[in-house]
Design brief:
mainly alpha; single chain; globular
């Protein structure tokens, strides 16, 4: 179970980073919106799977941590 939790945490972090990257990338508005929306949908699915493993509060904490700026990434 721990490896699945770690994998889901990593995927959530990757999707979050990709959506932040898309906000600053040069692309058309519609394509950028679709890309970010897909990342957020994926994060929602990972959150749901994580909730089943660790509970709602812990899964939400993981999601919130993904949105916090990392040191050196502001």
């Amino acid at each position: 179970m721990n490896s699945e939790v770690a994998q889901l945490r990593q995927r959530i972090d990757q999707e979050c980073r990709a959506s932040w990257w898309a906000l600053s990338a040069f692309s058309s508005g519609t394509a950028r919106h679709q890309f970010i929306a897909a990342r957020l949908r994926n994060m929602g699915e990972y959150h749901t799977r994580l909730t089943a493993l660790v509970g709602e509060e812990a899964a939400t904490d993981v999601l919130c941590e993904a949105f916090e700026p990392k040191e050196g990434e502001q």
